[in-house]
Amino acid sequence: MKFVFEVRIRPGHTAEQYADAWVRVSEILQRAPGARGTRLHRKIGDPDVLLAIASWDSKTSRDAMESRRDPRVAALLREAAEHCEVRVLGEFEEPEWIVDPTAD
Question: What is the mean pLDDT of residues 62-72?
């Protein structure tokens, strides 16, 4: 499953500041069972808007991580909140099939 959220950088801060916290949080969360990686993208034409995507084996895996979240993650997220506003876009199932014209 994909957990997707939008990050809007606050005036006077940079996406790089948020990305630093993102990497530190990801390093911790990716040790959780079911974690499959994270990605952070900049919006074309608006570098202060980011799209964040975390991949998990299942919603159950992600929910389990949230229920026993590492206290370091909470501290890092509080730090990151100084730099941005976060809006959760949603949780998305993996598609049953993917059409990828570049695949062999």
Answer: 89
SS3 letters across 63-89? HHHHHCCCHHHHHHHHHHHCCEEEEEE
Q: Name the phi and psi angles at 89, rounded to 5.
A: -90, -25
**In-domain check, residue 102:** no
pLDDT, mean over the chain: 90
Asked whether the beta carbons of 18 and 9 are under 8 A apart, the reply is: yes
pLDDT at 103 over 70: no
User: Which DSSP string corresponds to 26-77?
Assistant: HHHHTTSTTEEEEEEEEETTEEEEEEEEEEES-HHHHHHHHHT--HHHHHHH
State which residues form the domain around 57.
2-92
Q: Are strands 35-43 and 2-9 parallel, antiparallel or unpaired?
A: unpaired
pTM of the model: 0.83
